[in-house]
Amino acid sequence: MIYFISDTHFGHANIIKYTDRPFQSVEEMDETLIYNWNSIVKKGDTVYHLGDFCLGSLDTFLKYIKRLNGNINILRNADHHDKRWINYFDLGGDDDYLNYEFEITKTKDDLNLLDPIYDLKSKNNHIVLCHFPIYYWNKKHYLSYHLYGHIHRTDFNIPNSPLSMNVSVENINYTPISIERVIEIMDSRIKKFDLKPINEE
After folding, report:
1. Domain range holding 166?
2. pLDDT on residue 108
């Protein structure tokens, strides 16, 4: 099983007031997120986390990652939160807690100006993952999907992009969302808006 989630912000007390999360303390938030995660994600499942995992040091990161089920893939992103610990792994530290060898490809970015963009491909689906929303993503005209985070509002949508989805925790009931559910939602939007692939070649 594959799941997606973004912007957990473990250990980040101020995120509660910044985004109006329904928790009285950072401890309540953390424990709820961990409980929700482990209630559906099993040890053999795969989770793609789209960034802003936690706020704190490497020790803080390890404290949370050790309690979560699944093979966890955290997208490297440009936000400052994850940089406090992620450089440890980039510099060759022990990465037993992370799986960076995705079954996906990183979009080339020679100028290094953009956040990393990843393509998750299967026989029937093409999903573009990025921490930030993208207006026009790879294979969009062929009805590929785009999952993103960063924006905590629940009323935000990329204009004219029904096959995009915000998977920040506020938008998915503070629980990882399965790829089956993503496909179900996208299929319903394809039917609702009568979307058809457009050959741009």
Report:
1. 2-192
2. 46
